[in-house]
Amino acid sequence: MDTTTDIDELLGAATRRLSEISESPRLDAELILAMALDVERSYLFAHPEDSPDDAARARVDALLERRLAGEPMAYLAGQKEFWSLPLMVTPDTLVPRPETELLVQLALDYLPSGSDARVLDLGTGSGAIALAVATERPCCSVTATDISPAAIAVARQNARQLQLGNLEFVVSDWASALGAGEFDLAVSNPPYVCDDDPVLQALSHEPRSALAAGADGLRDMRRLADECRSLLKDGGTLMLEHGAEQEHAVAAVLREFGWLQVTCHTDHGGNPRVTVATRPR
Ligand code: SAM
Ligand code: GLN
After folding, report:
1. How many domains does the chain contain in total?
2. Which site among 30, 103, 168, 212 is 20 to 30 Å from 64 CA-CA?
């Protein structure tokens, strides 16, 4: 191994290799070096001429190979920021997406500050939505569910880390382990990708069970539209994230199950991404 390679050269070489697979190769390279050397990113800019030792360079190579194989940066770091909260993520949990902050914003708009509403996050994964709502609305009681016990363990750990007490976690196949008529608001970012969508190949490091939802991508939407009717109180509200192309299909599913005031909201990019509906009486 050439021990004369300094940080600047390592960054340049890593950036060139990462440009084949990443939209942010320089940033990924900086984060990988910072992780491998156990320093802040700013250290890299202050000490470009430092020569990491062989062990550190081996750690850089190992992380680089994982990233080049398509693993998300969040799994390399074991962490992802969502709603300004540092959340632990593992390959058992979807990496929370910035688009999902629209669902959080709509939930917060619905819940006045000081609200003591009972809120349900179905399919919580890392706990992202539930933790954001529980942080912003400390008087609400938030229940977070997932079919994956491993995901629930991560979400629970995140709640402990953030010292949030107004949350409970339940392993449940959608509504199956939950009581009737308990909640004022139910939110979900369910799986909604079609089984044959090529995007699943690009997302192959994330759990398929968090993403794929049958031939038409609506399998879990149908179950939620059906099962959430009994979970909500009279007049309660359901909010569902979905794909940008699914606005009309999701509205049709909700109407089929009797949901009222079905309204779709668009994200900052102008894409229809969250549909809100009121429980039929
Ligand atoms: N809420 C998280 C987020 O926004 O980052 C994770 C969303 S991920 C798209 C969907 C989640 O639903 C996964 O954590 C998956 O395990 C869970 N899930 C899939 N099928 C389920 C089912 N039948 N019942 C409950 N949860 C389910
Ligand atoms: N927004 C995700 C993606 O395509 C899909 C998440 C989901 O199925 N809920 O990257």
Report:
1. 2
2. 212
Which atom of ligand 1 is nearest to 211's Cα? 9
Q: Are residues 138 and 37 in the same domain?
A: no
| 172 and 95 inside one domain | yes
pLDDT over 80 (residue 26): yes
- What residues make up the domain containing 61? 7-70
Q: Are residues 219 and 257 in the same domain?
A: yes
In whole angstroms, what is the distance from residue 140 CA to residue 114 CA? 8
Q: Give me the chain's average pLDDT, please.
A: 96
Question: For 135-156, how does the pLDDT look when each residue is reduced to its tens digit (9 = 90+)?
Answer: 999 999 999 999 999 999 999 9
144 membership: H or E segment, kind and range: strand 141-146
The answer to whether residue 134 sits within a structural domain is: yes
Q: What's the gap in Å between 211 CA and the centre of ligand 2?
A: 6
Domain assignment present for 75: no
151 CA distance to ligand 1 middle (Å): 9
Q: What is the pLDDT of residues 185-236, one digit of tens each?
A: 999 999 999 999 999 999 999 999 999 999 999 999 999 999 999 999 999 9
104 plus 58 within the same structural domain: no
DSSP 217-246: S-HHHHHHHHHHHHHEEEEEEEEEE--TT-
Q: Closest ligand 1 atom to the C-alpha of 192?
A: 9
